[in-house]
Amino acid sequence: MNNVKYDVNDMPKPGLLVGLSFQHLFAMFGATVLVPILVGIDPAIALFSSGLGTLAHLTVTKYKIPAYMGSSFAYIAAMQTLMKTDGIAAVAQGAMAGGFVYLLVALIVKYAGKDWIDKVLPPIVVGPIIMVIGLNLAANAVNDATTLNKSYSIYALLISMVTLFAVILFNMYGKKIIGVIPILLGLIVGYIFSAVLGLLTGHSFINFSEVAVAHWIQVPNFDIPFVDYSFKLYPSAILTMAPIAFVTMTEHFGHVMVLNSLTERDYFKDPGLDRTLTGDGLAQIIAGFFGAPPVTSYGENIGVMALSKVYSVYVIAGAAVIAVLMSFIGKLSALLHSIPTPVLGGLSIALFGVIAASGLKILVEHKIDFDNKKNLLIASVILVSGIGGLMIDLGGLQITGVASSTILGILLYQILPDPKKGSKD
């Protein structure tokens, strides 16, 4: 592999390992804690569950796949509704039901085989889907990069651009350790610049008040439904959240495809799609047990790997351990909360763009022929439906973005005839 700094099974030196792990922690932190904030759950619980779920996923996949598990956005609407009606116990049952759906599909894959994957997900479908995974998040990244207090701010744009260009410069010209942790260093530069800019302009871009009042050791507000409450079955919650697992499952396939491309391995075959699905399902069940939002593999962390060329599973495991520990350290958690949104926006522009470019790389490497009308139409439909957020509403079950474009791409590949014999598809 070209320019790989640490391959999947390489372990960096302890000091560097911590720095690389923190880089992944910062990448997933914003999204992972945003979901529980929107739903009304303690963010520390989500941080704890994401770390524990990641360790479970790594164990199930025999430490062969560098994937981080973070809070899933797909379940937000369902969780918000259930929190208003039946509460956290119902959300937890729904989350665990989604995890069991993963386990069921994994069982089917194990015994039915996986040869169908190449036929269902050829390069002309995979490449555009990966592009959608990155570009689907573009609007959120730009919004974070230009917004302060829910309105456009030139200061926000300045902060995000300083952060972005710091990442680019560290990645392009950094030597040795500097070139390995461009995201972490870019974040530090953005944070310091935000503080300095605040002093020069009289604005407050960083809120230190939460850091001042937070305790050093602070146990997350665990709300374990099957321990804290008498058991009660919530069929509506299960029927509402379980089907959403099929939506996040398509994103899971996409993320594994990106990792296949980055690491030049085939994780569908080794350790096997059944194990990757089992790992995701177990992580989701763990999250539900502790009263946290369901988790899924994170594109943000894949972006970090693509940019840093560090694919070590030990780095991912380190990030998971730090996430669990940080959920108990009030001061550090509060400090992470204080990172200005424009800084995260600047990082996101780089990370999500790299994911999209990885999809383009697949099309180039497989020499996809776009003079072939079938290829052109499939790519066009996937890109527009995915980036545009096409929604398929099946009586309460909403399939949007990446999932809907994946379904359309797979169907078109199977249905459309190849108009040019011997064309590259």
What do you see in this structure?
One of its GO terms (molecular function) is xanthine transmembrane transporter activity. It is a multi-pass membrane protein. Pfam families: Xan_ur_permease (PF00860). It is a single chain. The chain is mainly alpha-helical. It has one domain. The protein is built from 21 helices and 6 strands. It has helices spanning 14-39, 43-60, 76-85, 88-112, 116-120, 123-135, 138-146, 154-173, 177-180, 182-201, 209-213, 225-228, 235-241, 244-263, 268-289, 299-308, 313-326, 330-337, 341-365, 373-388, 401-415, and strands spanning 69-71, 147-148, 151-152, 295-297, 392-394, 397-399. The strands form 3 sheets. It has a two-stranded antiparallel sheet. The protein has a two-stranded antiparallel ribbon with strand order 2-3. It has a two-stranded antiparallel ribbon with strand order 5-6. A hairpin with a 2-residue loop joins strand 5 (392-394) and strand 6. The radius of gyration is 21 Å and the shape is globular. The model has no long low-confidence stretch (mean pLDDT 84).
